[in-house]
What we know:
Elements: H1 9-22, E1 27-28, E2 31-32, H2 38-53
Antiparallel strand pairs: 1-2
Amino acid sequence: MDFEQTPSFQDEKDDLIEKLIALGIYKKEALHLFELTITELEEVYAQAACNQGN
Length: 54
């Protein structure tokens, strides 16, 4: 696997944050998005995506 083509964890985190902001989500409870882990961001995004489908 070529590591130059795989995004870094920070790039993945930044991408998720941008997607959430585009959906109008800026915080999870009292925490700002940049304070969350990638796993937490993925959970918030999955939940938001499900809510957008309803």
